[in-house]
Design a protein that fits this description.
This protein has about 300 residues and is α/β, with parallel strands linked by helices. The strands form 4 sheets. Strands 3-2-1-4-5-6-11 form a 7-stranded parallel sheet, with helices on both faces. Strand 1, helix 1 and strand 2 form a beta-alpha-beta unit.
């Protein structure tokens, strides 16, 4: 298979490309940055000419579309970039899909479940009204509607994937990254950080997420949507405690607050569809995955 991974320099895109290549595929990646990676094309998906040059000349069988502006706070601070990349950029790719007929896997987010507080099964939005709680969530829900609309009108074939709190080595720090990434970075550097104690989440180690994502092209069911998540429901203090214990530090740098506005309190997730269709399995626990993440960041930022 000839496969493209957009967002191919990212925390999920890069290991996904490596996994797909390991399975014998010809894998190309695209992202906005310059890179000397082999089989890499620089492409800003917000620019149709660049997307057309990439997709129109390469004859891909599959596109894994991961390129996106990420995160709630990032979406508030840089909303122009968010809407341009996530919505206009995705529309560019879909428009080419309608012409070229490649199959696509698009990553959505657990944020689309908004303020829903029960078990997050894929069909929830078909049964109950759900209000997305921030611009990032809105763009990801728009992406899902774009995909469904294109399938209805043009017969395009796409699988949607809702990722839940993927973490691990390869996620470089910024203030907008995942909570575990931020906790690890700031704890390593003895910097203060905030833990919202009432929120409960499931977290999926990067290798577990990537393995399941890579299975999709081999078990492709057009129109299907999957949750990909870890199996352990935990509060965010538990993650912080694991980090501090591993580093031998106390919690004097931590400010505890009850809840964070703009996101749901509990993310209890049903992953049975991904287990049954894709062989999804959470193999790496927080107790194992967080230390691996710490050691990766230690090597990158402290040179240890």
């Amino acid at each position: 298979m000839k496969i493209l991974v957009t967002g191919g320099l990212g925390a999920v895109g890069k290991p996904l490309a490596a996994e797909l290549e390991k399975r014998g595929n010809e894998v190309w990646t695209a992202d906005r940055a310059h890179s000397d990676e082999p089989y890499y094309v620089r492409c800003d998906i917000g620019e149709f000419r660049q997307v057309e040059n990439l997709l129109g000349n390469m004859d891909f069988d599959f596109v894994y579309h991961l390129a996106a502006e990420f995160g709630r706070r990032n979406g508030e601070d840089h909303y122009e970039n968010l809407w341009r990349t996530n919505v206009i950029g995705t529309k560019h790719i879909i428009r080419l899909q309608e012409r070229l007929k490649f199959r696509m896997v698009i990553t959505s987010s657990s944020e689309v479940y908004g303020d829903y507080r029960q078990v997050m099964a894929e069909e929830v939005m078909d049964k109950v009204p759900v209000r997305q709680m921030n611009d990032y969530a809105m763009t990801k829900w728009v992406n899902e509607m774009q995909v469904l609309n294109s399938a209805d009108q043009f017969g395009t074939e796409t699988v949607r994937v809702r990722l839940f709190n993927t973490y691990g080595p390869g996620e470089y720090f910024s203030q907008y990254r995942s909570a575990i990434c931020v906790f690890v970075y700031r704890a390593l550097h003895n910097l203060p950080y905030t833990v919202y104690t009432r929120h409960k989440r499931t977290s999926s180690y990067i290798d577990d997420t990537v393995r399941t994502l890579a299975n999709i092209y081999q078990k492709f069911k057009p129109g299907t949507v999957y949750n990909i998540a870890g199996s352990e429901l935990h509060d965010m203090k538990e993650c912080s405690d694991i980090i501090l214990h591993y580093l031998g530090k106390n919690d004097s740098m931590v400010e505890y607050r009850d809840e964070q506005p703009g996101t749901t309190m509990f993310k209890r997730v049903d992953v049975s569809r991904a287990i049954n269709d894709l062989g999804h399995k959470s193999m790496v626990s927080l107790e194992d995955g967080i230390p691996r993440t710490i050691e990766w960041q230690r090597g990158v930022y402290l040179g240890d």
